[in-house]
Structure formats: structure tokens, C-alpha cells
Specification:
mainly alpha
């Protein structure tokens, strides 16, 4: 009996992948979340899971008429408030991360081009044919006169 007949290493589905390992790295579809955001997201998921478990236990204790139903109901309500805080914590941490580290300043950035254009416009003198503000027709009228 050969190794091909008894389902050995060279037979069946795995015949063409003899040199390939079990783990193959693939490029990620999305970027990884920053560490603080991921930490708060994991914390929120754990809190929500515990709260849902408490709510389920409260429901079953209420059905059986146990005296533990009231304390568990109070704990489930407190857990709901904490779970809401956890979800808001994820949103706030994500927004804070984006505000601190999300903007990349590059030479090709639109904001930088706009800022350079404003600097260039400020540096130039008034175009010929324009009336300067100090000598214009409205310079002597109003509360902000310079004369």
C-alpha cells in the first residue's frame, strides 16, 4: 500500500501545496485602529456583554419569581448606564485621536497651498488702479475714521 492510497502527504486536496505553510499573511483591508481606540472598544464590548448577561438573568429570575430579581434588575439598569458610557468613550477617544494625530501635513496639502497663497497675496502691494483703503471715499465717514 502506497502513501497515495492511504491518504498520505502527497494525495488528495493537499497534493499541490507541499511547501506552503499553514499561515499565509494577507494585506489588511482596513488600517488597524489606534491602541487607545481599540482599548476603549474592547472595554465597551466587555461591558455590553456583561450587561446583556445581567439582563438575561434578570428576565429569567423575574419569570421564576425569585427574590433576586429586584437586585439583578437594579444591577442591569446600572449596567445599561455604564454600557452607554462605554460606547460614548469609544466615540470620544476616536474623535480625540483623529484631532490629535489624524491630520497629516504634507507639501501637497490643500491647506498648505491655500496658506501660501494668502501669504503671497498679503506680501503684494495693492494693484495699480485700485484706491487704497486709507484714501477711499468711505475713509472719512463712520465711527472708525483715521483723520
Amino acid at each position: 500500500m502506497s502513501s497515495d492510497e492511504d491518504g498520505g502527504a502527497g494525495s488528495g486536496v493537499y497534493a499541490g501545496v507541499a511547501g506552503r505553510g499553514l499561515w499565509v499573511e494577507e494585506p489588511a483591508r482596513r488600517r488597524r485602529m489606534p491602541d487607545p481606540v481599540r482599548t476603549s472598544a474592547v472595554r465597551a464590548v466587555v461591558i455590553v456583554a456583561v450587561t446583556l448577561t445581567q439582563a438575561t438573568i434578570t428576565f429569567f429570575l423575574t419569570l421564576t419569581g425569585s427574590w433576586l430579581a429586584l437586585p439583578m434588575a437594579l444591577c442591569a439598569i446600572a449596567g445599561t448606564i455604564v454600557a452607554t458610557w462605554g460606547a460614548l468613550d469609544v466615540l470620544i477617544t476616536r474623535q480625540m485621536w483623529n484631532q490629535r494625530y489624524g491630520v497629516l501635513s504634507e507639501p501637497s496639502s490643500t491647506a498648505r497651498r491655500r496658506r501660501e497663497a494668502c501669504r503671497a497675496a498679503r506680501g503684494r502691494e495693492a494693484a495699480p488702479g485700485r484706491i487704497p483703503r486709507e484714501d477711499g471715499p468711505l475713509a472719512t465717514s463712520g465711527p472708525y475714521t483715521t483723520r
